[in-house]
Amino acid sequence: MYFGRICLLAALGCSLGACATPSEEYPSLALRPAERVTGTMQPPLPAPYVPPPTPAAVVDRLAQLSGEATSAHRAFLAEAPRARTAVAAARGAQVGAESWSVAQVAVAGLESARSRAMIALADLDRLYVDAAVGGEELTRIGAVRDQVSGQVDEQNATIEGLLGQLR
Questions:
Q1: Interval 53-65: pLDDT, tens
Q2: Cβ contact 108:160 at 8 Å
Q3: Would the pLDDT of 156 be above 90?
Q4: φ, ψ for residue 73, nearest 5 deg
Q5: HSE (CB half, 13 Å, CA atoms) of 116?
Q6: Is residue 21 within a helix (H) or strand (E), and if so which, with residue range?
Q7: Burial of 141 (0-12, 13-18, 19+ CB in 10 A)
Q8: Which 3-state string (H, E, C) describes 116-167?
Q9: Are 144 and 70 in contact (CB under 8 A)?
Q10: Hey, what's the torsion of the CAs at 51, 67, 155, 95, to 10 degrees?
Q11: CB-based burial of residue 21 (10 Å sphere; 0-12 exposed, 13-18 middle, 19+ buried)?
């Protein structure tokens, strides 16, 4: 049995050898000129995206929110001198003293006016995100949002400064 397997393998090896030809007759495995990459291909440039204009309802809402924020900022600016006077009177007073309490109430009035502006800013942020997700034009919304954000930043700085004087 073992001898039979050896003979079978030898016969197969001899028969395969008979199929071989000299190496000059095999085709080359090197790249042929037709297989070489030549030239360049440039993909076409996509057309620039032009967002649709801001819908009229959003423009109306922007005007409303801008008006609310401006009104809140005016109320803040009108309330600020009274708060500054109260804080200046309370400078050096003990926590819980009458002048300190009056100053805290005045600063709370400023915070109330600021909160109205912050509500308008939050609504503007929502409009901005909705427009960005929808691929709509952001310039108008962004301009109003930046304006209101600047007002709120100014109000924050005023409140922080007054609270810092009360400490």
A1: 888 999 999 999 9
A2: no
A3: yes
A4: -70, -40
A5: 17
A6: none
A7: buried
A8: HHHHHHHHHHHHHHHHHHCCCCCHHHHHHHHHHHHHHHHHHHHHHHHHHHHC
A9: no
A10: -140
A11: exposed
What pLDDT was estimated at residue 8? 64
* Residue 123 within any structural domain of the chain: yes
Q: How far apart are CA 162 and CA 86, in angstroms?
A: 10
For residue 47, tell me if it sits in a domain.
Answer: no
Domain that holds residue 92: 56-162
- 15 belongs to a structural domain: no
Dihedral sign (CA 129, 119, 83, 167): negative
Tally the domains of the chain.
Answer: 1
Within a domain: 111 = yes
Summarised one tens digit per residue, pLDDT across range 85-134 is 998 888 877 787 888 888 899 999 999 999 999 999 999 999 999 999 98
Residue identified by tokens 């620039």 is 48
- Alpha carbons within 13 angstroms on the beta-carbon side of residue 148 total 30
Residue 87 φ/ψ, nearest 5 degrees: -70, -40
Q: Do the Cβ atoms of 136 and 49 come closer than 8 Å?
A: no
Q: Which residue has the tokens 């050896």?
A: 6
